[in-house]
């Protein structure tokens, strides 16, 4: 079978981190993250979702392994968050967020959900439910903290 008959393997990385955005600048910094993600993810053919509240980030990145890995290395050096923990990193056959360069989801901080304790599959299910009925390159809900 030639290259044209092979299905391209994708890579998915899910991580959790502690949000260091200050309330006073959180909305403007989040907007910078959104604009940067839209530009970079479209150029790199990456898809995914970013879930945040005033304490945490959880991000799913999907695409070519080397591109996802390079982006994660850059993300891990970003001073707007700390204590990064990889929840899942694996090869997959299809994207969970094929229509999203980045879906941005704000989670109310009083919602009873321990993001750090969820498995990769549980987080993906949660994010899919949050995005049900939506599609596009970016879903933006800029917080008013």
Automatic annotation (TrEMBL):
Residues 10-103 form the BLUF domain. SMART domains: BLUF (SM01034). One of its GO terms (molecular function) is blue light photoreceptor activity. This is BLUF domain-containing protein. It comes from Bradyrhizobium manausense.
């Amino acid at each position: 079978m030639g290259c044209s008959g092979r299905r391209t393997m994708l890579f998915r990385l899910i991580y959790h981190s502690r949000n260091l955005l200050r309330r006073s600048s959180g909305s403007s910094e989040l907007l910078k993250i959104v604009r940067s993600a839209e530009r970079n993810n479209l150029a790199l053919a990456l898809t995914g979702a970013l879930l945040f509240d005033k304490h945490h980030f959880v991000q799913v990145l999907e695409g070519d392994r080397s591109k996802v890995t390079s982006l994660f290395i850059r993300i891990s050096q970003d001073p707007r968050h700390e204590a990064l923990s990889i929840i899942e990193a694996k090869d997959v056959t299809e994207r969970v967020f094929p229509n999203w360069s980045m879906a941005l989801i704000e989670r109310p901080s009083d919602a009873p959900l321990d993001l750090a304790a969820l498995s990769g599959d549980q987080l993906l299910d949660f994010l899919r439910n949050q995005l049900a009925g939506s599609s596009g390159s970016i879903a933006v809900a800029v917080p008013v903290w």
